[in-house]
Amino acid sequence: MPAEPQPGRSSEPLLRIRGLTKRYGGAVAVDDLSFEIAPGECLGVIGPNGAGKTTTIRMCLGLTGPDAGTIEAFGLPVPAQVREAKRRIGVVTQFDSLDPDFTCAENLRVYGRYFGMPAATVDARIPQLLEFAALTAKADAKPGELSGGMRRRLSLARALVNDPKLLMLDEPTTGLDPQARHLMWERLQVLLQQGKSILLTTHFMDEAERLCHRLIVIDHGRKIAVGTPRGLIAEHLETDVVEVYGDGAAQVARAHAGLAARVETSGDTVFFYVSEPRPLLDTLAGRHDVRYLHRPANLEDLFLKLTGRKIREDA
Hints:
The chain is of the alpha/beta class. It has helices at 53-60, 82-85, 104-114, 119-132, 148-159, 178-193, 205-211, 229-236, 249-256, 278-285, 299-307; strands at residues 15-24, 27-37, 42-46, 68-73, 76-78, 89-92, 166-170, 197-201, 214-219, 222-227, 240-245, 262-266, 269-274, 291-296. It has two domains: 15-234, Rossmann fold, CATH 3.40.50; 238-296, Alpha-Beta Plaits. It has eleven helices and 14 strands.
């Protein structure tokens, strides 16, 4: 597991949210949510589908008005002064919003004009941004000619046109294959090393663990846990997990549940959460009707413990 660099916290937060609440009819999408993002920090927001992640980002961008609470970006109230605040924010949404009729270079050029940037300034940045996105050879290609990973990198490059201090990324690697995801992670790590801050929503727990200094877990719009990835795992989970499969898994669960702090069954797999795995592993070693995997507890275990294994209807 990579070390978690701690961002400096001597400066004022770039984004400060207090008591944010949003309702749609009788449903509460975001419920009294508060958090801050420090300069140079990657803050991850994880939770099931429908937990309120995207709604929170939309409110931070002034696209949806809150019913209660306050948002300050760079000391500016949102949505009252959102236009000024957004000059220092870059955004990558869940779904590509690239113009299909423009080339990669033209997409960057037009987006820069939205910020009122001089044409010469935008044109000078385009080669750097294409190189950063590993798209130099695709400058004259249109989005329809690009792979999914290339389009996501172009979206990231476009979000950097205005050289923002804060990036808001809503599930930026959804739908990408492992190679494309890893390349995207490399680019985001470079941005963090440059001192930029990131608000990241994701369903990929390895992505959250790799990139985020801190995590907020939300469910039904409420914050239910906050901390560093390692800190949350240590706070809420046992150190080890033993996954047991096979015809005898259910019998193992009945006979040896006392060897674990917690036992869960999902499909044909039994999960034993243990702080001392050796007694259970010794028992399993003598059985031929099961297979098993012993591993450290991870963020996916945390996610499932705090939000449940049941698929939500809106998932």
